[in-house]
Amino acid sequence: MSTTPKPVRGPMHIEATALHITADVTPLVENNVHDLLDLLMEEDLFEAFMELACTEPTGEHDGHAPDRLAFEELKDRLVERLATKVALTGRQALGIADQMRRLGAARSVPGQQDRRWSA
Prior knowledge:
- This protein has helices spanning about 25-40, 45-55, 65-80, 90-105, and strands spanning about 10, 15, 20-25, 85.
- By secondary structure, it is mainly alpha-helical.
- β2 (about 15) and β3 (about 20-25) form a beta hairpin.
């Protein structure tokens, strides 16, 4: 497996709930679970995982406990090697854009602002 993750090939499906538009990225999740299992078979990552799994919890839950740092470091090592993008053909991208535009317009409220995405 390459150390540089490649985009996962689509399809990607768009769905709507009463308030949100959701993207079903099942191919990305399936690919990442597969790759994660492969990564955990590598000796250095397996050892780091087992060390973490076998460490007795300190009982501290402030986010600064030593076992929490080991968890975050292992997570970062794994995430940097997993795919984070879904590759779509031009036709798939246009279809998704159209679906998102239609579904988003039906759910937008005048004056409503998502503060996480505002500039």
